[in-house]
Queue: 2 jobs
Job 1
Amino acid sequence: GKIKGIEVSRELDFERPEIVYIDEKLASLQRRVDAALPDRVNRFVDYNRDETRFIVRSWSDIVPPEYYVFDGGRPGLLFKAYPDLAGARLSPMIPVEYQSRDGLTIRGYWTRPVDAPDGPLPTIVLPHGGPWARDLWGWDAEAQFLASRGFAVFQPNFRGSTGYGHAFTEAGYGEWGLAMQDDITDGVHWLIAEGMADPERIGIFGMSYGGYAALQGLASTPELYKAGASLSGVSDVRMFMADVSKNLRHADLMVQLVGDRRADKDKLSAASPAQNVDEIRVPVMLGHGTRDWNVSVEHSKNMARALKKNGVPVELYIYEDEPHEFLDDRNRAHFFERLAEFFERHLAVRATN
């Protein structure tokens, strides 16, 4: 079908999560739950000892998670995880696909603000963390938050992402900031060519590896983005690998996945935003927790210092005692409110509600 002029291929339906049962009894129960709660992802998350009553978690792109009790009859609502969003008009997450420059098919998602006008939209590119993970169709709080402020959101599952077979994941080995970044860049060019994204109003933001990809995008394709933001992101790949070897966290595997900080010194430096800060010429926002053991807070502090030295506008938010992901919701709210203001300012967007 077509959504606001965007062609949506039937084949991309498989981009929605589905479960395959070996047990016919469970398969039958799943069919009954799916019939009662259609167009959603429904999962059994708990059950009683004799497996006659189940708790079902149910969600979709426009339905935040809800919990139901199911005993073979009609599922009964227990509670909603986000009751304050009841009645809110949320934005559909549309599966898309495009070709990268070397011919690899890349899939991802395009969340279009529900009240958006026709034509190219201000867009935020939201690469996922991991990077050995993937974005999924369904409830995505960050995408919905940005869409509620009037931005379209693009989430590419670049090479190295999981869920598309081993060869696709392995195609990302040693490609931090290189082919993995090209997949993101080529997705942005595809959005512009399709008339979906306004080339004058594109920003990029991510968390963890996504934060790295945001900063690397600003350094490697400075003409593409008007602003960028990173939360808990890597800014220096060699420094990150030095920490990995010190902490002995799967150090040998990480060398295979990312590279050797000595043997691959030039390649990793070229793929490090902090080493190429001279290329960055648009405003940057950074956030980091002081107790982040995955990616040291020094990555954001060093990046901010280098940007300031170059006269690039930078906002740095340091969160005391926070690890790699927020534990305190007040800090999460603070960061995301600042983030929305940052992109509204630099991409010239008015909030839609």
Job 2
Amino acid sequence: YNILLNTDISIKFTQEEIEKGKKMIRELGIKEKNKWICVHNRDDAYLKFKNPTYDYSYHSFRDFEISTMNKAIMKFIENGLTVVRVGSKQKQKINLKHEKLIDYPFYSKRNDFLDIFLLSHCEFCVGSDSGIITIPFIFRKPVYRINYGLGHLDLLTYCYPWPLITKKIFDLEKNKYLNLKEIFNRGIDKFDRTEQFDNYNLKLIPNSEDEIRNLSLEINSRYNKTWQDNPEDVELQKKFWITYKKMYNKRFMGNIEPKIGTSFLRNNQYLLEQ
């Protein structure tokens, strides 16, 4: 019933902590009047650092390259926002340079308090299916997910109203992308380990740079309060969720229907084929 977003924030900063955070923000390079957003990509650097003896490769199907966010990052900057790439450990640096872009995982003064302060005071967050984006969510900040798992959208129907885009599933044997009906009929929606996709000769296709860019345009428009729904796109959203719920046991779903990124759904209508 979307209880979380309809209740007050339960974790508060003291005034002393707020002043501490503001000081750290200035030192990081964010000017006092600047508004910032956070972006994040999931890779294996953090888990390898935390527990180098354990094989976390079963989670690799959730990873993607930070370079695929380049066009989106520049669109956010063009919209007047400072972009802070978050994470305590990341494999690759961003191959972009701009005074309003901060590659925070490689900041020499990175610390746990600043991690939380950045994510809790941002305008919104754009990121992967990873624990770090729970922080802005707890503080009621919009979270726009990219590269999310198609079969796990039910988890977002309880308290997640914001647009997102998903990875696509490509069948190497049939040489085709799988639609929702095929994903559910074959039980692929329940896959949560890399080897399960490998065993079925399936390849997860990460969102392209243009797909993420197109979502950023929608996010910017919503942020600027200039977004207007197109009737055809509204119908596509309805059709998507009718199709999804036909395949899924509705008893285990919440009442919210998160929006699939408008451009993404328009360009991938094969998902709705019966």
